[in-house]
Specification:
By secondary structure, the chain is mainly alpha-helical. Helices cover about 75% and strands about 0% of the residues. The radius of gyration is 15 Å and the shape is globular.
Length: about 130
Amino acid sequence: MSLFQWDESYSVGHSEIDTQHKRLFQLAEEMHAAMAAGKGKQMLSQTLTNLINYTKGHFSSEERLMKRYNYPEYPQHKVEHDKLTAQVLAFQSDFNAGRAMLSIDLMLFIKNWLTHHIGQIDKKVASYIKGKAA
């Protein structure tokens, strides 16, 4: 069973953001599948790196949109992005140094963060942008 299955309920109604969110789910699922299959550290490290790099690019894209439309909650939203980025970079450092391993707890943390952030916080952004762009 897929832990990171995209569902249309996650759609924020902005095609660029939705496409990026779908890709985040795909990358997270690739990491989960590699972990579940017992892939080696090198493969797990690469899938983690791919997810982190894509997430950073996605956050930058979202932040540019928020700035372009003068989203009033941009500072708080950016703090959320920065916090998650710092957490996953610290985990990546620990993982690469052999001080941590990919676990179902980490997968659930990522899943919960994605579903909460997309389902609540990003939907507010998209709704605001739609109102401004109309």
